[in-house]
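Let's study a protein:

===
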Amino acid sequence: MNISILTIGKLKEKYLLQGINEYLKRLTAYAKVEIIEMPDEKAPENLSDTEMEQVKQKEGERILSKISEDTHVIALAINGKMKSSEQLAEDLDKLATYGKSKIAFVIGGSLGLSNEVMKRANDTLSFSKMTFPHQLMRLILLEQVYRAFRINRNEPYHK
């Protein structure tokens, strides 16, 4: 299985990079996982609704340019579907069973994802009704993907 995490913004925090690198290393036993960072759109603090949509549009174009037609896209969104770890594991297992070997998880920038990216998504995923920094979501997502592979292989992992 080839898993891409498409994300807006560059990660600078060492503590997050250490955690992310640890899970990337652990995941090599299960899948090929890559993180594709794209630059965020520079914008002033106080944006109008129109300007916010333009920022999301430009970031969305960058994201969509990295997704091939045969990729199953899961958009992370606060209004997405909430799932348990076991449900995510089951979803990934079903995708593998039905020959969907390319999966892309999409993490938007601070303003979220464009309508075009949401339309392209095959599924949505929410980790909480709370808002998390998109940098932290990479680590949380990788941990849950790792947990899903452990669950699917009946391998022990802390609960």
About this structure: Helices lie at 14-27, 49-64, 85-97, 115-120, 134-152. The first strand starts at residue 2 and ends at 8. Residues 5 and 35 are 5 Å apart (CA to CA). The radius of gyration is 16 Å.
